[in-house]
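Entry 14. Ran structure prediction on the chain below.
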Amino acid sequence: MPKLSAIVITYNEERNIERCLRSIQWTDEIIVVDSFSTDRTVELAKSFTSHILQHEYDGDIAQRERGFGQATGDWLFYIDADEEVSLELKDDVRREITSATAKDGYLIPRAVSIFGKWIYHGGWYPDYTLRLFRRGKYFPKRAEVHGGFAVRGETGTLKGQLYHYTYETIEQYVSKMNDYTSLQVSDKLNTNPSMEVGTSKIVLSPLSHFVRKYVSNKGYRDGIHGFVLAVLGAIYTLSLYAKIWEYRMRKREGRGLMPPITNLELRNAKRL
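Output, structure tokens:
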């Protein structure tokens, strides 16, 4: 019987961690990689696993790879602390990893709860993400934010859902947006080092985002939640391109405070 290791990374997740770990108790091994939480996250996690590693946060990919390095399973399955495995997904995973025709990795659909409502339009669902793969078959797709993993070999798709309890409040969304847009500057410039952002990009991209999410992707079908999310997404887009413009301008001029655009720079800036 193939062995399955589940990996969860955490930082101050006492509101979510029990729900998350309870949903993966059926796996053969649970590994928690914690970024020195200051709340009860580690204490609560100890009720589900003794395999808890603590390391200062330097990005999702790095933290998950530390967990993978500690894992002993034939298969690796990672989820976030604000996620929960459905019973249908549990059955899918168990069936697939024991199948003689199992693929090398599997995409899993995520249902997203935002501001207390499940969101099924506006491009939010199904949010397919690769979370299950064979040991030795995966490789990282590195990024400062929203990085992930891919596999060398065949990829399949599961039907069971992963429940994602994301932003509970608008304040939480805005707070994370500030971090994510700063980190995404780095990702954008790594992909296109000569990228320049002008007035038209800053003005038109947020408008385009709103129309795409609210109209083309039918965000209006989620009611006021869909409208608010489309507006916030437009603000996210505005913030991202404005930060790229700011970064390029300051780098060209060689003066003034350079904004943080990596996890290390952001962590140091917050310490100050």
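Residues 103 and 154 are 5 Å apart (CA to CA). Will compare against last week's run tomorrow.
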